[in-house]
Amino acid sequence: MEFITLNNGVQMPLLGYGVYQVTPDECERCVTDAINVGYRLIDTAQAYYNEEGLGNAIAKSSVPRDELFITTKVWVSNSGEEKAVASIDESLKKLQSDYIDLLLIHQPFGDYYGTYRAMEKAYKAGKVRAIGVSNFFPDRFVDLAENVEIKPAVNQMETHVFNQQMNTREVLTEYETTLESWGPFAEGKNDFFTNEVLKHIGEQYNKSVAQVALRFLVQQGIVAIPKSVRKERMAENLDVFDFVLSQDEIELIKALDQKESLFLSHTDPASVKFILEYDKTMRP
Questions:
Q1: CATH superfamily of 3-282
Q2: Please, what is the average pLDDT of the chain?
Q3: Per-residue pLDDT tens digits for 111-164
Q4: Which of 58, 125, 161, 177 is at a distance of 20 to 30 A from 249, taking alpha carbons?
Q5: Sequence ranges of the domains in the chain
Q6: What is the Cα–Cα distance from 270 to 148, expressed in whole angstroms?
Q7: Residues 6+ positions from 223 with CB-CB distance below 8 Å
Q8: What confidence tens digit (pLDDT) does each residue in 203-237 have?
Q9: Is the whole-model pTM more than 0.90?
Q10: According to the model, what pLDDT value does residue 279 have?
């Protein structure tokens, strides 16, 4: 495994395992498989409703807690300083851990300034090793980063070959904030898994389309958290550190960038309302 050093000196694995859309019932088994395969970064969120499953897997694992890097995120309904403080403690309880390695604001809505203040307090209290944000586009990111004491260590964004976040990356560089990719496979959209450019490059290294796409990200210092419920696919996704893409190959992949989301727009009122109501409609 390769690591990246965050802006506060904490080391974070470049490749991890995400449990978005992993059901609460499956989560413990999936995380156990992921840890056994070799993953050390595991990414969850309050809004995934599977923190308990992750906590059970951690508690039962033979891998020491300090060798794992656990991320969770504060959801919009827990925004604001008072609610966020309580939700952080609840996440710690569900994760069965004394600390969280990386804590993010999940969405740039609600009282996220109050949420960030709660996260700064948790950081100073030793409950969290690093704090950051998720889905913060450049304008909101800069506004937050310029008005907080502790600069965000990470911004987790939809990032894949079709949406490479080049403008966001330029802004994050100024704050030494690491970009983390959610949806590194674009959830299969745009015929991702049959893309001819990725297939051709993969053939040169005996690698799959997915492995080429992950290599493209981690080779540029972008953390990726692919999700799979199949142990053999988890292992395949982790196997991307034994080859290096050439600059010409990187340029070919860069040309795939469509510079827009394949999922939803955070500037669309309907999408914002969907996010604000998410936990009311999606809670198990």
A1: NADP-dependent oxidoreductase domain (3.20.20.100)
A2: 96
A3: 999 999 999 999 999 999 999 999 999 999 999 999 999 999 999 999 999 999
A4: 177
A5: 3-282
A6: 29
A7: 4, 12, 13, 14, 15, 16, 41, 154, 178, 179, 180, 181, 217
A8: 999 999 999 999 999 999 999 999 999 999 999 99
A9: yes
A10: 72
Q: Is residue 38's pLDDT more than 80?
A: yes
Q: Residues 6 or more apart from 57 whose CB is under 8 A from it?
A: 27, 28, 29, 31, 32, 35
Distance CA 70, CA 12 (A): 10
CA distance 248 to 253: 9
Catalytic residue from among 17, 39, 48, 112: 48
Element (H, E) at 11: strand 11-13
Adjacent-strand bridge partners of 4: 12
CA–CA separation, 126 vs 146, rounded Å?
Answer: 23
* CA nearest to 83, candidates 107, 116, 53: 116
Using only the alpha carbons of the chain, give its radius of gyration: 18
- The whole-angstrom separation of Cα 261 and Cα 159 is 9
